[in-house]
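Chapter review: from sequence to fold.
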Amino acid sequence: MKPIPPRAGQVLLPALLLWIAAAGVAHAEDEIGKVARATGPGHAAIASAHPAATAAGFEILAQGGNAFDAAVAVSAALSVAEPHSSGIGGGGFFLLHQAADKSSVFVDARETAPGAATRDMYLDENGEPVRRASLSGPLAAGIPGLPAALEHIANKYGRLPLEQSLAPAIRLAREGLPVTEGSQRLLRAVPRMGSPSPAFLEIFMPDGEAPPVGALIRRPDLADTLENLSTQGAAGFYTGPRAELLVKGVRDAGGIWSMEDLAAYRIIERQPVRFRYGEVEVTTAPPPSAGGVALAQVFNMLGHRSYAQLEDPARTHLLVEAIRRAYRDRAEYLGDPDFVPVPVERLTHPWYADGLLASVRMDRATPSDTLPGPVSQRPLGTDTSHFSVLDKDGNRAAVTQTINTLFGSGFVPPGTGVILNNEMDDFSVKRGTPNAFGLVHSHANGIEPGKRMLSSMTPTFLESERGLAILGTPGGSRIVTMVLLGALAWMDGADAEGIVSLPRVHHQYIPDSLSFEAGAMDEDLQAALAELGHTLRESSRPWGNMQAITLEYADGTLTAASDPRRNGGSDVR
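The token string follows.
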């Protein structure tokens, strides 16, 4: 992959609607599959982690909704169809672009710490983290943000009422979805995640084990909760009888939620992080996401060292050293900007990148423990969900949502059908102690009541005179590097299918190792990087579940693609 070399002073075309003048239509697939393409005006595209969610989005577009209504429908449908990764018991980030005025906004629906949360709530009497205390059960759950986001986006940016956009998800919850081989495999892993609540087991493992492939899992309690949300808005979730059920269930099982916590939750709109790499404008996630800052830092470093002109192993070596330093800064500086000063402007400034590069040697890897910052180690994990939407008018959405690890906290408050997140683990439980994804943090990401925990979720837009890309992925600590590699692939000419199919490499400062998927590096490159001092580890399993859309302005080719590693669904209509 060779990205476009940095060139200053280039101006984007007014852009997105230029392709509408193109002629000719060629729809590649009639069924929802892994990849879909169309050429010509008047098409929309959706790529999501489940075909039923993609179908829900197109159902709403067919009823006159725009990309933002479709995003509400897809998000809610994923809450039903992908319970291991996301849901209304969690949160997410919505990166939106309105074609009419060419404006972009970042809708922050990240979870918040309950009012009774304390800095040391997961430590024992010796000041050490209690095993799984921040991962299992209701004490691990932050106050969900996704229900508030669905109402906010429908009311402020959509064309249709919330009740209409949530109808497909409610139908899916009532009628049920069949167990697949993949979902059965995930349910069989449930015993390893702790002790799921009785209400969780009643829904997903009623006979004490994963249901057979083809069995329907119906979720009537979740359908009722979604109906409350659809008819009453966010108040139907955060106040009243449904909120009382949530709080009672949490507190009866040892959690600390209160009615005041739910009623106080608010969506925050933030300005995205924006920067340029050559002729490409990147619009991405600001804090409390760490992704946008890290992407800006890495691209600044690559540009200053003429990455595009390098050959391997120098290319991969420089990329790893840039990523190493960005993740170090993530650990030290980033947190909720409403609680701690996050120096975004300084960290993303090209001059700061010069300073970071001062310690980079092209003949030797930098040991991470020689860089200042909190250092510790722990194995990694992944879960979360992403989807991308583009409507025929050019409105677009990149959305990453999560309940954190597999099936979140494993806790369902009785009568609600809602799987609660375990996002409290994304706080710094103790300085230098890694979370479930092996990430370490400073006190900038310490626990405080009402605070939003730092996230890796990085929904992103790329745009140049050539065209447009909408992308994002789950993957825990690997999210930023996967989005980075996807962006570099697009800059090198790849379409959505090429972006999501690309073999991946990853480094995150701690642990100090360069991990890679099978096929990502040949033996010669591995040997050369080892000679430079990198510790290499080939992964035994694939990473991520990227969902991407690309548009070529020259001929209007629109491509939607779902990661071949998973069971997503993409379509263009």
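Two observations follow directly from the output. The first helix runs from residue 51 to 62. Residues 47-95+105-265+385-445 form one domain.
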